[in-house]
Amino acid sequence: xxxxxxxxxxxxxxxxxxxxxxxxxxxxxxxxxxxxxxxxxxxxxxxxxxxxxxxxxxxxxxxxxxxxxxxxxxxxxxxxxxxxxxxxxxxxxxxxxxxxxxxxxxxxxxxxxxxxxxxxxxxxxxxxxxxxxxxxxxxxxxxxxxxxxxxxxxxxxxxxxxxxxxxxxxxxxxxxxxxxxxxxxxxxxxxxxxxxxxxxxxxxxxxxxxxxxxxxxxxxxxxxxxxxxxxxxxxxxxxxxxxxxxxxxxxx
Length: 252
What we know:
With 252 residues, the chain is of the alpha/beta class.
């Protein structure tokens, strides 16, 4: 299994990161993608990925922090990508839910990072909250055709647009809630080869850990939920999602 989105560098894991990684490996997780959210945590992502061979880095500037990013951070991103080629540029994108983050700033940093992804021929890990259509507009504008729409929760038509663009869709904890009817419908109806698994730990905890820290240890249970929804064996889900994640991120 591959956790395609996990912030294992966050302080939430400082007390027991070694134990978490050991348990994750025992459960059959073979890779954890650790995306940065700002230039300030590039070093933390580097350290975690150096300390644990299972972890692979992605570097990017998260849209929620657009008011804090500086133009110099884009050069820092370009420098670290050139020095230590990551598996992707991320976590990047747009967020129309957070009202106090300037949209012009978000769009500036998003498009500049799409240029960097194109320059280095890297996929992108997208943050798409309430912004699927605007993000797709920019992906088409810059001809970006490889990546993952993290924590996807759009319409069927938006899902199909991402798939047509060459993207895969990340499903994780949100899918485990019975009230998430639209998301669970998508999990059943979309082609399995267009889906990858993720936790977004320590955030977006699954139903059985609601209100608690999320963890990459929940990957097998998330895979089981997807298998149950689709009425297939978990081994089919694990094999397909692992193959898909590797096809995008070139991990092995």
